[in-house]
Specification:
GO terms for molecular function: RNA binding. The two termini are about 20 Å apart. This protein has helices at about 5-20, 20-35, 50-65, 75-95, and strands at about 40-45, 100-110, 110-120, 125-135. The longest helix has 22 residues, at about 75-95. The chain is of the alpha+beta class and about 140 residues long. It contains four helices and four strands; from the N terminus they run ααβααβββ. Helix 3 (about 50-65) runs antiparallel to helix 4 (about 75-95). The mean pLDDT is about 95. A four-stranded antiparallel sheet has the order 1-2-3-4, sandwiched between helices. The protein has one domain (about 5-135): Hut operon regulatory protein HutP (Hut operon positive regulatory protein HutP), CATH 3.40.1510.10. The chain is about 50% helix and about 35% strand.
């Protein structure tokens, strides 16, 4: 299987975050698995500021559950760091508002990417944003 670089793994994480249903998510996961790329995705919604830690925690738990990472300090820290980086990119739009959407995670060898795709808003006045983080892990 070919080795893909950080750009391809980031694109896969974004694609996972954009999946619209559990069925589509599972189909994508199977497709990317054939390419040698491990993936995970998890939905999330809530008030942004009070939810940052929960979002990071959900990303780490999903990555472990789906076998994207091992239960090591290094792997868990890579997912947590990439997730926080992704969240920091959408923070200016999301402060004080509710967010809802999906977290997508992808890994091949030492490349791991986390993408967050959220609708941000108040009532029906929604904005959308994508944040992306990448880490290299041994």
């Amino acid at each position: 299987m070919p080795d893909y670089g950080s750009k391809k793994i980031a694109a896969v994480a974004i694609r996972m975050a954009l999946s619209e249903s559990r069925q589509e998510e599972n189909e994508l996961k199977a497709h990317f698995h054939q390419m040698g790329i491990k993936t995970a995705a998890v939905d999330y919604g809530g008030e942004f500021i009070s939810s940052v830690n929960k979002i990071v925690e959900r990303a780490v738990v999903a990555a472990k559950r789906e076998g994207v990472i091992r239960e090591t300090h290094t792997d868990e820290g890579a997912i947590a760091g990439a997730t926080r980086e992704a969240l920091s990119q959408i923070m200016p739009k999301a402060l004080g508002l509710n967010v809802g959407g999906k977290i997508g995670i992808a890994r091949q060898k030492d490349h791991v990417s986390v993408a967050v795709f959220f609708g941000i808003g108040l009532l029906h006045l929604d904005e959308v944003a994508i944040g992306l983080g990448h880490r290299a892990v041994p």
